[in-house]
Design brief:
This is Intracellular protease. This protein has helices at residues 25-37, 88-93, 97-108, 120-125, 141-146, 171-188; strands at residues 13-17, 21-24, 41-46, 51-56, 59-65, 68-69, 80-83, 113-116, 133-134, 150-151, 156-159, 162-165. By secondary structure, it is α/β, with parallel strands linked by helices. It has a single domain (13-188), classed as Class I glutamine amidotransferase (GATase) domain (Rossmann fold). The strands form three sheets. Strands 6-3-1-7-8-12-11 form a seven-stranded mixed β-sheet, with helices on both faces. A three-stranded mixed β-sheet has the order 2-4-5. β11 (156-159) and β12 form a beta hairpin. The longest helix is centred in the C-terminal third of the chain and has 18 residues, at 171-188. The radius of gyration is 15 Å and the shape is globular.
Amino acid sequence: MTETGQNQLHGKQVAFLTANEGVEQIELTEPWKAVQEAGGEPRLIAPQGGETQAFNHLDKADTFPVDQSAAEADPADFVGLVLPGGVANPDMLRTDKDSVEFIRSFFEAGKPVAAICHAPWTLVEADVVRGRTMTSWPSLQTDLRNAGAEWIDEEVVVDGKLVTSRKPDDLAAFTAKMTEVFAHYAQNN
């Protein structure tokens, strides 16, 4: 928790959308912990119920129970959306129409979204990057530019209510900005 209390989520729910397989574990667990420390309630959303299989790079890691499927989850229940990375995770998500629609609805509602590493691939599929300044894992820069974004190489980039970061090494900066943006939105809406 912050000493000033300004970055608090006070019981607000935050959606974490992942594929059922392929999410980078630390990019799920560190933002999850940051939401909890800010007083928020993280909820795991995936294309299907059951579990999500996380990875440490290319090696299987832990599994995490899914709270709701993307088809069942109502974006109105959440103050923000976190999109963890992992190479396979966003590639699988962008082929699931319910997940893509879930993402798009946060942008349509003007709610904050935080995406790290390869996660912006799903933002391209949701057609929400045009005109935005953002960052990602470097290999996505061409895809993001082709979709109309301005890509820059910085540890964390905030464009309105969109927070993006490049990689696990940026998690401290990412989680700090993410909770700040989510808390500001929660306190003003």
